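Hi support team,

I've been running sequence recovery on a batch of backbones for a student project. Most finish fine, but this one hangs at about 90% for roughly twenty minutes before it completes. I'm not sure whether the input is malformed or the queue is just slow. I've pasted the structure tokens below so you can try to reproduce it. Let me know if you need the job ID as well.

Thanks,
M.K.
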């Protein structure tokens, strides 16, 4: 996959940084937006129970797997069209498609 964003070339070894960045962005959103809203909606101090958190985690895992499947279908389609299935060449698709899996 192409690891360029505009003129910037991102080294493949630095791709694991993206999940950390997503967590750093989403954790404050969870603490400052989602939990206060849940407290108002449920009128409890916790906002959501442990079982509800587990359920949401399972649903998000399903969504992440579905996104991963769609990304792999997209990658295979891009490789299949120009005949790059068994080639060592870089696929003409951006690596940001993989980062969608980390976001979900």
């Amino acid at each position: 996959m192409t690891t360029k964003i505009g003129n910037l070339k991102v080294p493949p070894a630095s791709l694991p940084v993206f999940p950390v960045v997503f967590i750093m962005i989403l954790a404050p959103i969870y603490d400052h937006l989602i939990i206060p809203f849940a407290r108002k909606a449920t009128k409890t101090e916790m906002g959501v129970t442990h079982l509800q958190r587990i359920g949401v985690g399972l649903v998000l895992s399903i969504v992440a797997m579905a996104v991963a499947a769609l990304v792999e279908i997209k990658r295979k389609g891009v490789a299949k069209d120009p005949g790059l299935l068994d080639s060592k060449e870089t696929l003409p698709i951006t690596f940001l498609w993989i980062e969608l899996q980390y976001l979900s």
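--
Follow-up from support: It reproduced on our side and the slowdown came from queue contention, not your input. The mean pLDDT is 85. No action needed from you.
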